[in-house]
Design goal:
The protein is α/β, with parallel strands linked by helices and 229 residues long. The protein has nine helices and six strands; from the N terminus they run βαβααβαβαααβαβα.
Length: 229
């Protein structure tokens, strides 16, 4: 198995994919990016801009690039967007590219976000976040949990929503696999076709059962999928 680099979703941290990673072999080949302001980097400030977060992610995989190792990049939602832009950056730098980019729960980067969450009150913001799935029911009304996680989510959503797509950039030269949840979009397959404009290589798109966090309902599928690498 080659190196697999995981990029967490908004509000996520180094343990966000633990349920999946525990099922996988060769765990020493798996690296999970840790964003500042949470987890093992709790004492650090949140990244202020998308570019700052992007550079931080690149620095965390510098050893893999320096050693010219084979690897793939995987990200869910905001993590998918970061994995995509990291790939773009690496290609511009003429460094060793990932063998594949794997995206889950993220519409094409060219698709404008029509819903903005960060301007909302904490109450409305929390309601919208919970509607996406991924927040266990037992935690949704826990005030201590909410007060802890809302600032992290707001920081990530602020960066996520400020992202600007660069239309004139060179297309990627690596294959992309895209997965989306059956309950995420009423026209999911049509929406996701936009990913085919992001690479000159093969772009495969597949639907799996579930809401935005369908990955956690399909752990066996992804365990087998990543095992092929």
């Amino acid at each position: 198995m080659m190196n697999i680099i995981f990029f967490p979703f908004a509000g996520g941290h180094k343990l966000s994919y633990q349920n999946l990673i525990e099922k996988m072999e060769n765990k020493d080949k798996i690296k999970v990016i840790e964003y500042s302001g949470r987890g093992t980097r709790m004492r650090e400030k949140f990244a202020g801009t998308f570019e700052e977060l992007l550079e931080d992610c690149l620095s965390q995989i510098s050893n893999i690039l320096d050693n010219n190792e084979n690897y793939i990049l995987y990200g869910h939602s905001m993590g998918g967007l970061l994995a995509y832009e990291v790939s773009v950056k690496i290609q511009k730098m003429n460094r060793k590219m990932p063998k594949k980019l794997v995206i889950t729960g993220r519409t094409p980067p060219s698709r404008l976000r029509t819903i903005k969450y960060t301007h909302q009150s904490d109450e409305m913001f929390w309601k919208e976040v919970c509607s996406l799935g991924g927040i266990p029911k037992d935690f949704r009304d826990n005030e201590d949990f909410k007060s802890f996680v809302i600032p992290i989510l707001r920081a990530d959503f602020s960066i996520y929503e400020s992202y600007t797509y660069q239309e004139n950039k060179d297309k990627l030269k690596i294959p992309i696999d895209v997965f989306y949840g059956s309950e995420e979009h009423s026209d999911g397959n049509f929406v996701m076709q936009g990913w085919k404009r992001e690479s000159v290589a093969s772009v495969q798109i597949a639907e799996l059962e579930g809401d935005h966090f369908f990955i956690f309902n399909n752990l066996d599928f992804f365990e087998k999928y990543f095992k092929n690498f």
